[in-house]
Amino acid sequence: MGENRHQALGLSDAKVLDMYETMLLARRIDERMWLLNRAGKIPFVISCQGQEAAQVGAAFALDKEKDYVLPYYRDMGVVLTFGMTARDLMLSGFAKFEDPNSGGRQMPGHFGQKKNRIVTGSSPVTTQVPHAVGIALAGKMEGKDLVTFVTFGEGSSNQGDFHEGANFAGVHKLPVIFMCENNKYAISVPVEKQLGCERVSDRAIGYGMPGITVNGNDPLEVYQAVKEAVERGRRGEGPTLIETISYRLTPHSSDDDDRSYRERDEVEEAKTKDPIITFAAYLKEAGILNDDLQEEINHRVMSMVNDATDYAENAPYANPEHALKYVYAE
């Protein structure tokens, strides 16, 4: 029972294999970035490990030709689904001139790529939320059939930007999908010290929208929730708040030591629910994946990661005279 849940959701075998490969690519790029960071080759990593299922499951429910994504800094799975490449992400990690996000000016994780409808994020958290609401308002005013999809951590759900954006979207019935990727920790602060309510999704009622909490380790459950939210938005029924529960398997960033605020046993326990492992198990049970195909996918992914690393490491830095480029009108 429940073997072919993806077919019930209208997802083909090829589509769920594509989801798995995208999740794996995000994980392998992330792992490589940590190695490069520890080797002193790239300055900073902010990780997606443990959240790939939520990111990829959600992004697959959107229309890449019409919809806009406003990702937060961990969203490698979202931006890979929307058309960024392993090379793009590595160029950003190495801060090279060809980095599509910022020409090597910004920290990694500040995603932005106009051609793929990925709207630029910034370092202060949660600023992307009102931007998503603004794009949805513009789309509604221009009669465009688009939804905006914005993500943020549970720490960000306590910022004013979230509340203002959610309230405005609720009042004006805008097609925004607010997705909180709850990974249990806002840097070093556990979720129970951040929220007065039990779940982030409990807040939805105050803004006149439905709120749902789903298992962020299950890409199909996230896909279904986002798909329904997309359909609501397209029908003019307004925004939805989705909370995905997963666990951040790494420290907050490469500058953080998480041993000071969480037990190793807790992290080890979370690894047993690692979405990369559990989704592969589902695909094997459904008869779509076997060891040979899994090996082939991993091999293909590692080739992309190796290519991206070599390419980005050898790519040129921006010229010093580019310092004022994009700052003032040319």
Fill in the keyword field for this structure:
single chain, 330 residues, alpha/beta, five-stranded parallel beta sheet, two-stranded antiparallel ribbon, 11 helices, 9% strand, globular
Report what the structure shows.
The termini are far apart. The chain has 11 helices and 7 strands. Strands 1-2-3-7-6 form a 5-stranded parallel beta sheet, with helices on both faces. A two-stranded antiparallel sheet has the order 4-5. The protein has 330 residues and is an alpha/beta fold. The radius of gyration is 19 Å and the shape is globular.
Please describe the topology of this protein.
Blueprint: H1 5-8, H2 13-38, H3 52-59, E1 68-70, H4 76-81, H5 86-93, H6 128-141, E2 148-153, H7 160-171, E3 176-182, E4 185-186, E5 189-190, E6 211-215, H8 219-234, E7 240-245, H9 264-271, H10 275-285, H11 291-314
Parallel strand pairs: 1-2, 2-3, 3-7, 6-7
Antiparallel strand pairs: 4-5
Helix pairs in contact: 2-3, 2-5, 2-10, 2-11, 3-8, 5-11, 6-7
